[in-house]
Amino acid sequence: MMPIPANPTNASIQPQSLYDAWADLAWRAMLTEVNLSPKPGLVDRLNCGAHKDMALADFHRSAEAIRHWLPRFMEYGACCTRLPPESVLAGLRPLGMACEAAMFRATAGVNTHKGSIFSLGLLCAAIGRLYQLRQPIAAETLCATAADFCRGLTTRELCQNNLQLTAGQRLYQQLGLTGARGEAEAGYPLVIRHALPHYRALLAQGRDPELALLDTLLLLMSLNGDTNVASRGGADGLRWLQQQAAFLLHQGGIRTPDDLVYLHRFDQQCIERNLSPGGSADLLIVTWFLAQISQVNH
Questions:
Q1: Is 5 contained in some domain?
Q2: Domain containing residue 143: CATH number
């Protein structure tokens, strides 16, 4: 396993480096998501959503801290190409934990991007592996490689009968929700089959990029078995949120700035119900990142 640098923030940043360029894209994905407004129940430029312990500035600091670690995931993915893909995840865990520690230092203990560290860490390791193997780096190949890394993860971590269940294990056993682990192990089907084609189609139609991204968030919220929502509102809260998002899409979605009034109303309802679709926000970050991946000329 690659040694983890003790202080990656002091490493010299080479703008021409491919790894740094991809890391910069992932950083922009995190900023694009949190700055997107209005988002139902989520922290954005207008309010803190259903959160009392975090604000916009926390997410900006968190994204900057995470940014410096992402090339390390790519380096690890590149250096372990001789390992079978399902053996890669064990080596990524120490990097993920170190990246989380950097996030918590930047936010004074607030969990802003733990889900994104998992998903972006996997995708960055996949970038390193595919680049080293001289294979195409595209949304589909990256998600398939991430799925290979996570083979068997859901069974190993969610199907255990511990005396003290984790939140993820409890939601899996009670509601069958697999969360971020299941989505990664399946190759991010909500992104590849739904969100990414939807977002690309809206942009191809000339839709405003921010409105297109808000519409894509609604699509993810309508389909995702979001464990963040279920942990706060149970099965009823998750069902309500999915139905509300689906209803707005059925009514035409977010086509013009005038439609934002419906999102503002949805946001207030989520705040009143203490619901925050953080899992869908993480998938929106993945969607935007993969939509831009071809920008890096390698």
A1: no
A2: 1.10.4200
